[in-house]
Recover the amino acids of this structure.
């Protein structure tokens, strides 16, 4: 008898335990719901905010604090994730309905999400609350406008410049470049900086889009994708010229080979003192400040090509999930982040260049040992939007695969570009 | 009698309750996805799971897709190189570490370490060692006056580098399993054999090898399936869009690209089903063939 009761107890225990485990399995999933206890005229509830740059976590914590002074009943839940998993997670969330209420969006993905009917059109709210979209870089406001619907207000922006290593310039006895330089100046300097033993190269001509060919292609008068997003521009001579420039640098030995740059990326080679110059975005500042070489580095505007100076501008937008449970609270949060106060805070904390007009100066002043005005000037005077369509990721993949053959000096730039045009047009035809 | 059946009933209930969480987990994370992949492979599934019935279209596209055939070729190349190498090396090490040598516990641990290390970490370390500008291997080669070799970006070498890393990280685990198999063989066989004057090589081929065949069979099947599904080392070590990728990407890498980078989940599902069928056929053939060479005592 005794044995039996013991056994029973064990069984009951096991039953209880397994029930608990089963519940435990599921409790993680149903978190999306939030308490909708809304009082009259008051905004409350939980707003989940997803973003990929965990370096900005402390900035958003500060923002949430300030935001709660105005709306104490709204709980902002920050959900940072790494860049690598962000888009997979976001898409899965959008498919299953557990997506965050407010989340970061970028250029390559905006059309996909807009067409997928995931995003809230905030055009009406913008008008109602009297936000002046002219206060933000036009190229970015346009980037988040799909078929006449405004899906986001830009949060920040980045433009392209040429970072350079002053020490390498000094050693070679070459004067530092100035914002009015040309591509030919750059090529000359790159050759002068290059050492014969391969320990120093003048520049990195790595295959890059946002901080590579997407700048030189429009400067040469070509385009990546037509304005109506129906045709690739890669079969145009001007577009091919914008690609050829970079390949020439590799061919002339002023840059490490493409395969070297594939194994050790340009930013690492630059920050370990192997490259004289390195094209990159304003975001690179954070990496520079953290490196040992922060005192040896400065930045200059991108060079002009045949009199054209062009820098890609890109920026993150805050989007709202169409079926969010707390549309008012979500909008208030987006509105707050778009405001001058949040933008100033962003500049002070050095997270990124804030998009709101005038607030970028705070960022420039904060790091005045670097020539950061060139980035702001780029946004105001010579920026071009990041080329996108609905399936950007797919044709960008083909573009990379084919053009890398040219960057590896395995095929002609013309042949590679023609191949890109063919494949890209197939993708665009399916969209 | 009645009492017994009641107890039996209780046993059943208790048993099922205890496996319930596991079955639930398997159902949600294995069985449902398997059927879902099969279902999706007949659909065009775009971003956000918007799906449309397309019949066999995905399969037709797949058989005309040159990249798929290249990926399949790469996968078979991995299997043909990696599986025999892993098994032969694991067996040699197992026999070696079964002998009476000094410090064998130490060596057993050393060889097993790759098996308990995260494959992502393994890939990162090897990526650094293979690096063409700063890598350890090239540094040593340079000391001997040999020019640096681009192990990871040269399309002709990248797949070999992948093979080396995969073999290195799989030998240890299989060695432990084979070692356990060898130690399960009764000592009396060896005693009898040495009394009859058989040397250690003779003993290996006539006693160890035949008696270890069930373990060998297990190791063969699992390694083969694992190698067909090679993904992480390639994904972590080879530049995503570089020239070397085309020559080294496996079916699973190609599947991943389609599913998660191009948002073509329907097509990716067809790829997964195709690979599944290939693995199933090969495993079934092995099951049949085992009667010919596996000895069960």
């Amino acid at each position: 008898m005794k044995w039996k009761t013991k056994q029973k107890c064990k069984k009951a225990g096991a039953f209880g335990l397994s029930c608990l485990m089963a519940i435990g399995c599921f409790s993680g999933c149903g978190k999306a719901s939030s308490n909708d206890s809304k009082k009259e005229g008051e905004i409350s509830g939980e707003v989940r905010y997803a973003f990929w740059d965990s370096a900005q976590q402390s900035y958003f914590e500060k923002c949430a604090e300030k935001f709660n002074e105005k709306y104490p009943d709204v709980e902002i839940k920050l959900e940072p994730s790494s860049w690598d998993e962000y888009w997979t997670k976001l898409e899965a969330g959008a498919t299953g309905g557990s997506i965050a209420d407010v989340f970061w969006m970028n250029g390559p993905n905006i059309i996909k999400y807009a067409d997928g009917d995931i995003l809230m059109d905030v055009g009406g709210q913008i008008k109602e609350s009297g936000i002046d979209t002219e206060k933000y870089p036009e190229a970015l406001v346009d980037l988040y406008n799909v078929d006449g619907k405004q899906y986001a207000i830009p949060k920040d922006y980045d433009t392209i410049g040429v970072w350079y290593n002053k020490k390498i310039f000094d050693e070679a006895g070459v004067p530092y470049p100035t914002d009015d330089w040309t591509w030919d100046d750059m090529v000359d300097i790159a050759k002068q900086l290059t050492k014969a033993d391969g320990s120093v190269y003048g520049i990195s001509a790595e295959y890059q889009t946002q901080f590579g060919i997407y700048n030189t292609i429009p400067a040469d008068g070509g385009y990546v994708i037509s304005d109506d997003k129906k045709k690739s521009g890669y079969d145009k001579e001007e577009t091919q010229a914008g690609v050829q420039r970079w390949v020439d640098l590799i061919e002339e030995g002023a840059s490490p080979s493409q395969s070297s740059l594939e194994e050790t990326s340009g930013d690492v080679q630059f920050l370990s003192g192997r490259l004289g110059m390195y094209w990159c975005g304003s975001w690179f500042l954070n990496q520079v400040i953290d490196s040992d070489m922060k005192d040896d580095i400065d930045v200059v505007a991108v060079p002009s090509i045949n009199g054209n100076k062009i820098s890609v501008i890109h920026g993150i937008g805050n989007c709202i999930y169409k079926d969010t449970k707390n549309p008012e609270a979500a909008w208030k949060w987006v509105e707050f982040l778009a405001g001058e106060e949040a933008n100033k805070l962003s500049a002070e904390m050095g997270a990124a260049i804030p998009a709101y007009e005038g607030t970028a100066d705070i960022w420039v002043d904060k790091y005045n040992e670097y020539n950061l005005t060139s980035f702001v000037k780029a946004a105001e005077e010579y920026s071009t939007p990041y080329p996108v369509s609905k399936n950007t990721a797919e044709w960008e993949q083909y573009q990379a695969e084919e053009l890398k053959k040219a960057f590896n000096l395995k095929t002609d730039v013309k042949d590679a570009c023609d191949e890109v045009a063919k494949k890209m047009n197939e993708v665009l035809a399916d969209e | 009698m009645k009492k017994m059946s009641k107890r039996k009933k209780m046993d059943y209930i208790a048993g099922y309750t205890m496996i319930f969480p596991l079955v639930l987990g398997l159902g949600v994370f294995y069985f449902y996805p398997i059927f879902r992949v099969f279902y999706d492979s007949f659909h065009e599934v775009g971003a956000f799971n918007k799906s449309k019935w397309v019949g066999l279209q995905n399969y037709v596209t797949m058989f005309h897709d040159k990249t798929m055939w290249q990926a399949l070729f790469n996968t078979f190349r991995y299997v043909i190189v990696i599986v025999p190498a892993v098994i032969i090396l694991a067996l040699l090490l197992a026999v070696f570490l079964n002998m009476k040598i000094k410090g064998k516990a130490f060596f057993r641990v050393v060889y097993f370490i790759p098996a308990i290390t995260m494959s992502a970490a393994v890939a990162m370390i090897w990526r650094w060692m293979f690096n063409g500008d700063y890598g350890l291997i090239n540094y040593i080669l340079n000391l001997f006056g040999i020019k640096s070799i681009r192990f990871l970006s040269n399309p002709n070498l990248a797949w070999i580098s992948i093979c080396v890393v995969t073999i290195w990280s799989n030998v240890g685990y299989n060695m432990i399993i084979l070692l356990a198999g060898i130690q399960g063989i009764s000592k009396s066989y060896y005693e009898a054999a040495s009394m009859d004057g058989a040397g250690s090589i003779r003993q290996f081929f006539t006693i160890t090898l035949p008696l270890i065949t069930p373990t060998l069979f297990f190791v063969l099947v699992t390694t083969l399936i694992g190698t067909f599904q090679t993904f992480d080392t390639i994904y972590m070590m080879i530049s995503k869009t570089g020239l070397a990728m085309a020559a080294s990407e496996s079916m699973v890498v190609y599947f991943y690209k389609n599913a998660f980078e191009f948002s073509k989940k329907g097509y990716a599902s067809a790829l997964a089903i195709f690979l599944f069928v290939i693995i199933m056929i090969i495993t079934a053939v092995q099951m049949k063939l085992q009667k010919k060479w596996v000895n069960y005592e």
Summary: Chain B has one domain: 59-293. The two ends of chain B are 40 Å apart (CA to CA).
